[in-house]
Amino acid sequence: MHATELIALIPALVMFSLAASITPGPNNILLTYSGANFGIRKTMPHIAGIRAGMTLIHIVMLIGLGQLLVKNPNVHMLFKLLASGYILYLAYKICLSRSTNSTSQDQSRPMSFVEAAIFQLINPKCIATLLSLSTALTLPGELYWPSAILGVLMFNIVALFSGFSWIYFGKVISQKLQNPKHQQYFNYVMASLLLVCLPLIHIS
C-alpha cells in the first residue's frame, strides 16, 4: 500500500521538477553562458555546485527550517534583494567579459563549485521550488521521509538533465560565436536575460 502511494507520487514529482528546472532562470542562463564560452567540461563544477547547493537546502527545508521562510516573509524578501544585487553584478561581469580566444590576463572564468553552491542560498527560484517540493509534494505521516527522499532523488535526476540541456545548447551555439563581435552580442543577450529575471523574482 505504501509503495503504491509513493509510486503514484512520481509523475507529479517528475512534471513539477521538469517545469521548475527546464524553464529559464538565473541558473539556466548562467549555464548556457558558461557552456558557450567555456565548454561542457569546464562547466561541470558549476552544475555540480548547483546540485550540491540545492540538495543541501532541500534537506534543510525537509528537516523543518523551511517553515522559517513561510512564517517570515521578510526573510524571503532579504534573499530576493541579495539575489537581485548578485544578478546585477553577474550581468555586469558578463557584459565586460572578453572572447575566450583572448589571451588577456583578466579573461573571465566559469563559476566555481563553491560559488554556484552559495548562489543557491539567495536564489529565489531555488527557494520557491524547494519549498514546494518540501511541502506540497511530500506525503503525511510515516510516508513523509520516504516521499521526501524520493523527491530529492527525482528532482536531482530531472534537474541534471535540464541543466545539461542548457549547457549543451550553449556549446552548440558556441560554434557560431567564433567571431568576437558575435560572441560579445551573445554575452549582451545573456546579461539582458539575467536582468529580465529581476522583475520575475520580485513578482514570484
Based on secondary structure, the structural category is: mainly alpha
The coarse silhouette is globular
Number of beta-strand segments? 0
Radius of gyration: 18 Å
The proportion of strand residues reads: under 5%
Give the biggest beta sheet. none
Rounded mean pLDDT is 84
- Number of continuous helical runs: 8
Protein name: Lysine transporter LysE
InterPro entries: LeuE-type (IPR001123)
Membrane topology: Multi-pass membrane protein
Main location: membrane
Describe the fold and architecture.
The protein is mostly helical and 204 residues long. It has one domain (27-33, 42-97, 109-203). 80% of the residues lie in helices and 0% in strands. The protein is built from eight helices and no strands. It has helices at residues 2-22, 26-65, 67-71, 73-96, 113-119, 124-135, 144-174, 180-203. The N and C termini lie far apart (37 Å).
List the helices and strands and how they pair.
Layout: H1 2-22, H2 26-65, H3 67-71, H4 73-96, H5 113-119, H6 124-135, H7 144-174, H8 180-203
Helix pairs in contact: 1-7, 2-5, 2-6, 2-7, 2-8, 4-8
Summary?
This protein is an all-alpha fold and 204 residues long.
